[in-house]
Amino acid sequence: MALEFELISPIEVAKDFALAVQNYTVLSAQSVANFFRRPLYMADMVQQADLIGVGSLPIVVLTGLSVGALLALNSASTLQRFGGVSLIGQLVSLGMVTELGPLITGLMVAGRNASGMASELGSMIVTEQIDAMRALGTDPTKKLITPRVGATAFMLFFLTIIADLLGLIGGYGVAHLIFGVDTQQYWTSVWQILVFRDVFTGLIKPVLFGFIISTVGCYYGMSTRGGTQGVGRSTTQAVVASSVLILVVDFFVTKLIFAFFGYR
Amino acid sequence: MPAPTLPIENPAASVLTLSDCAIEFENVAIAFDEKVVLDGISFRLQHGETKAVFGVAGSGKSTMLKLAIGLLRPDSGRIFVMGEEVTRMSEQELFQLRRRVGIVFQESALFDSLKVYENVAFRLMEEKIPPEEIERRVREVLHFVELERTYDMFPSELSGGMRRRVAIARAIITQPEVLLYDSPTGGLDPVTSNTIVELIMKQRDVYKTSALLVTHRLQDAFTMATHQFDKTTNQMVALPKGQYCEVATSFLILCDGKVIFDGDAHLLATSRDEYIREYIS
Fold it and tell me: How many domains, chain A?
């Protein structure tokens, strides 16, 4: 049996990539511009906020708690060698608030919701429901995409705060119960180490990550082709792309904030 | 089978003006991945007329309907709907125009996460009509398609025929000036198909709505041409032999991306073209 391979020109691949970037940019810009155009689907936005925010709460609680505890456990073993166990609070606080809280929450919500958005919108595309919506005189970017973008960015902000808090509690549990760090000492060091720049970094990131998760999820959903197999492909691509993009954007945002506010 | 090159058999079309037309296609062409689907087609749909569109699978019938409401853009040519040039309108302008046109999709395309009444009321809810008024109109239109009992059901709980009828209810709830039906009887049993045809006929004869009806079933279109809806008995009745319905019902056949026939039932039945004869036999 002869195997046939189809050769794809690198120029075609580059063209497809450029087109995808262009379409993603247009969709993202439209989703933001729709906030300033009527009608604004507030009821849909609240429904999405409930699905995305409240629905993601259990995984955010569990991961926040675990990451905080793990951070404390791993840093304590190193600090112990130098007699600096009392510094656990500072390490956990800085790590959770500036980096791990937003990142882990972003990745968890990306896994749960970017896939959900891509599969939901993808199914609507292949069953002509999006065409039906356009035919009924309703703009799908206003009705379906903008509420998801607004709700994800808004809810991720609060989910991150919850993850940060639970991470600190997890870290406290390990520091106090395993390494005997005093309660007041732990929470004082947690509080004192944080400066405006840390809190700002930790709260600007979830808004950006929320925007990335929702726009990438919606983009892959709306570009679904090829029936149920296409829906599956879009779902996987949405999770992979949003996770990678979150990590890349995280690096550049952190660098930019350091450049703007200066290093510690 | 070679595509015949017949002249379009519709002498009346040439004397129609744009204002007489609900829909007009002017040399419209579209291709997907270098495959030409429509190759410069032209036709007119008069106000109040029902035009049945035929063609083999992949001949561009559904594409034609999507072009008519701007869901697709042609590569060349012009399309007018109720005097407005669809091909020059922005997506935002098209949303306004589409509110005056109803479409029934091939697979119904009901919103599967919404109940039947929410599907039917979708357009009214978007227009912020008071809830009592919405409920009254939804019940009225569900009564029209004889599906009042499905009010609180989800589309997944309905049969294929019922879903088509709900799709028709959704399309007609705002009493659009033009209706586009994409294979409304496709894949249905003969009894259910007959119910759908009767419903389309009811809409045509009661509300005099212009319609483009894409179908594979010639018998549906001939039934449309030879029957009339009787409001007193609430069912369709056959017209005497040789007499056609007072509302114009015409036929359009697509082949290899071109219109090879555009005329009434009589012209179609007496056509001597080999391809058409074979198609209708």
Answer: 1
| pTM for this prediction | 0.85
Q: What is the pLDDT of residue B58?
A: 84
- Please name the residue of chain B whose CA is at the shortest distance from the CA of residue A142: B92
What radius of gyration do chain B's Cα atoms show? Answer: 19
Cβ contacts of A135 on chain B, cutoff 8 Å: 69, 71, 98, 101, 103, 105
Asked if residue A177 is part of any domain, the answer here is yes
Residue of B nearest to A131 (CA): B71
Task: Tabulate helix, strand, coil % of chain A (nearest 5).
Answer: 85, 0, 15
C-alpha distance from A243 to closest chain B C-alpha (Å)? 28
Q: Any chain B CB within 8 A of the CB of A139? A: yes
With beta carbons under 8 A apart, name residues in chain A contacting B98: 134-137
Residues (pLDDT < 50) of chain B are 1-16
Q: Is residue A156 part of a domain?
A: yes
Give me the amino acid identity at B222. F
pLDDT of residue B275: 83
CB of A195 less than 8 A from some CB of B: no
Residue A134 resides in a domain? yes
Report helix, strand or coil for A215: helix
The answer for B 139-198 residues in CB contact with A (under 8 A) is 170
Tell me the C-alpha distance between A45 and A41, whole Å: 6
User: Which amino acid makes up residue B161?
Assistant: G
Residue among A192, A161, A241 at smallest CA distance from A91: A192
Q: For chain A, give the percent of residues with pLDDT over 70.
A: 97
pLDDT tens per residue, range A171-207: 999 999 998 889 999 999 999 888 888 999 999 999 9
A214 domain residue, yes or no: yes
Structural domain of A141: 39-261
> With bands split at pLDDT 50, 70 and 90, how would you rate the model's confidence at A101?
very high
Comparing A107-116, A244-253, B229-238, the range with the smallest average pLDDT is B229-238
Element (H, E) at B254: strand B249-255
